[in-house]
Design a protein that fits this description.
Largest sheet: 3 strands, antiparallel
Number of strands: 21
Shape: elongated
Number of helices: 30
Strand order of the largest sheet: 2-4-3
Length: about 650
């Protein structure tokens, strides 16, 4: 949907004609462009060539505009600056984001909605809500002519800077009118093709532009008629000629690649198939280093079977390396240390990095007196292993009476990507920048796109092979919940609505800002929160449940919920019996002996993790508690299709 100054003037022109008793208006060709774009949006009707009339929804929109002008919420459009985007994909996103947040837009987009007359007392007003109603009820047309076909074929699919898009007439306006392209909040500086736009771009790679109209509703109807009947005789001679000339079918009625892709276009356009919620993924550099170490240790195992990637062996391998080889991990180690020791130690910890040569020395500096340095080193490794297992990149198993980690198929794919592109942060917002192209009419923020570029997930307005990998992982991996002590603190500070990224920073001392960014990354990648383009933070349904589930866990617990703990909960659920009234799953004493086998854990690891579950209040003496059941439901929701 795109309504600029010229579109509003065109609507008012048609409305004025209606008031003089004329229901249709013939527009001179040089002035026709805004009317063509309004017609493509489904806002006005083409009665005959160059002759237009208002529809129900355009009359509704005109009434909104006139009311807003009368109430001085808007200047008369004749006084607007040329090209002013009163409504565009970015404005629709702003209105939708505010709607999810009880109408509160937040500081990031407030002035942009205010400029368009859509705010009252810092909340979206009735006119903003009515515009959303129009957007949701209109069904754009689909008409790809020769110029639009060539533009789509030549342009990158995004995400990318809007500045790299070709400048050719009003083709971009036509694409936005048909909801084939979207622009970013708040300044439209990043673009991406929508699912419908991407599907049509695929068609342009194979179709033959034999006529001026290459894709239309009539052409798609003919193609679907053949698809359903599987018999070319159902087509008229004219339909056969059109579909064959455009390269959609051969003379036997068999579908060619362009035709197969056009059927995808039809189902997205008709039923919204291919449009889905945005999911994301996240890895820190420490996670990637440990993934590499697991692989190295398995290679060593080939010549020395005694070497196995146990948590201790992984920690030993990592910490014996000179610190200079892990300079990129300073921020990770630092965050772990001052989360544990207190932010007042931050400068002291930073200074220590300049003195020591190994990670072991670093940890000894702060924990030697208590004799806890080796345990703390192990905790760092263990937390990262939990993260990797939470994202199904490694799996804990039992071999030679030891807990060992193996790479999953997804882990092997990530490892290969690391070998090619190097160790780097994969931020949740970077992966989200790519997966925004699954949403109906939204583009990623500028800062999200920049993080995707830094991580080599996009470049030159196209998704890279790395980007495709992490996009796939975001939707395909089966997530096991994991919450650290600090992530719990952040999660507990987030209410269900009317909350923004700026608010979470304001709730903590400034020195914690880096930690908060990483915590939000993890919480979003695990499916517990959703950060919207207007910076609103919204708890997902799974997030609401997990927040309640771990609320009773002691504040000092390093990891109130881990992937191994969830495997135990799933095992107990499988062998236990649900008591609805008590909101518990009871486990018979005789079944506890087999629970560790169902969980796929060795007895020692099982018992250690079971103690953690009991401390967190997720498991009782002989049952899964109500909190544990909430955690299981959160697991189910996170992994729903």
């Amino acid at each position: 949907m795109i309504i600029r100054k010229e579109h509003v003037l065109a609507l008012l022109n048609l409305d004025e004609a209606v008031h003089t008793g004329v229901t249709t208006l013939t527009i001179p060709t040089p002035e026709e462009n805004p009317y063509i774009e309004l017609e493509l949006q489904g806002l006005i009707r083409l009665e005959k060539p160059s002759t237009y009339s208002l529809t129900y929804w355009s009359k509704y929109l005109v009434s909104i505009i006139k009311e807003m002008i009368k109430k001085q919420l808007l200047e008369h459009p004749a006084n607007w600056e040329e090209g002013f985007r009163w409504i565009g994909s970015e404005v629709i996103t702003m209105l939708q984001n505010a709607e999810v947040n009880d109408g509160l837009p937040g500081p990031y987009i407030k002035e942009f909605l205010e400029k368009r007359g859509f705010l009252k007392n810092d909340t979206v007003n009735e006119y903003g809500r009515r515009v959303l109603e129009i957007f949701r009820n209109m069904h754009p047309r689909l008409l790809i002519t020769g110029d639009t076909f060539k533009y789509l074929k030549d342009m990158p699919a995004g995400p990318g800077p809007a500045s790299i898009l070709p400048v050719r007439g009003r083709e971009l306006l036509k694409l936005e009118a048909m909801r084939l392209i979207a622009f970013s909040v708040p300044k439209s500086d990043i673009f991406t093709l929508t699912p419908l736009g991407r599907a049509i771009k695929k068609v342009t790679q194979y179709a033959i532009p034999a006529f001026n109209t290459i894709i239309s509703e009539d052409i798609m109807d003919s193609l679907i008629k053949l698809w359903d009947a599987e018999d070319i005789s159902v087509l008229t001679d004219a339909e056969k000629e059109t579909l064959m000339s455009l390269g959609y079918i051969n003379d036997k009625g068999e579908f060619l690649p362009a035709g197969e892709y056009l059927t995808e276009v039809y189902w997205i356009w008709k039923e919204g198939k291919g449009i889905k919620p945005v999911k994301t993924f996240n890895l820190e550099q420490i996670d990637e280093e440990i993934l590499k170490i697991v692989d190295i240790l398995w290679e060593k195992n080939k010549s020395n079977p005694e070497i196995l990637p146990t948590p201790d062996e992984i920690a030993k391998f990592l910490y014996e390396k000179p610190l200079k080889e892990y300079k990129h991990l300073h921020s990770f180690y630092g965050r772990r240390l001052y989360q544990d020791l207190g932010y007042q130690k931050k400068e002291e910890i930073k200074a220590k990095f300049a003195e020591v040569k190994t990670t072991e020395e670093l940890f000894k500096s702060f924990y030697e007196a208590g004799g806890k340095w080796y345990e703390k080193l192990g905790d760092v490794t263990r937390t990262s292993l939990y993260t990797l297992e939470a994202f199904n990149l490694v799996k804990s198993t039992f071999e030679k009476n030891k807990e060992v980690y193996i790479l999953t198929e997804y882990g092997k794919e990530v490892l290969e990507d690391i070998k090619q592109k190097g160790v780097r942060e994969i931020h949740a917002t970077a992966v989200k920048a790519i997966n925004m192209n699954y949403s109906e009419f939204t583009a990623p923020n500028y800062e999200w796109h920049e993080k995707a570029v830094e991580a080599h997930l996009v470049g030159n307005g196209e998704i890279s092979t790395s980007g495709e990998l992490y996009s796939k992982l975001a939707y395909n991996v089966k997530r096991l919940p994991h919450i650290t002590k600090f992530e719990k603190m952040v999660l507990q500070a987030i209410p269900e609505k009317r909350f923004f990224v700026e608010d979470i920073y304001a709730n903590f001392d400034e020195v914690w800002h880096e930690e908060i960014e990483y915590a939000l990354d993890k919480l979003e990648a695990r499916g517990f929160i959703n950060i919207l383009p207007n910076h609103a933070i919204v708890l997902t349904e799974a997030g609401k449940l997990i927040k309640r589930a771990i609320a009773g866990a002691p504040l000092g617990m390093s990891n109130p919920l881990t992937p191994l703990g969830m495997r135990i909960l799933l095992a107990l659920q499988e062998i236990g019996s649900l008591y609805t009234k008590e909101k518990k799953v009871r486990v018979l004493p005789k079944n506890w002996a087999t629970a560790y086998k169902v969980a796929g854990l060795d007895p020692e690891t099982f018992n250690k993790e079971l103690k953690v579950l009991r401390m967190a209040g997720l498991v009782g003496t002989n049952s899964i508690t109500e909190a544990g059941i909430l955690a299981l439901e959160a697991f189910r929701l996170v992994n729903e299709e």
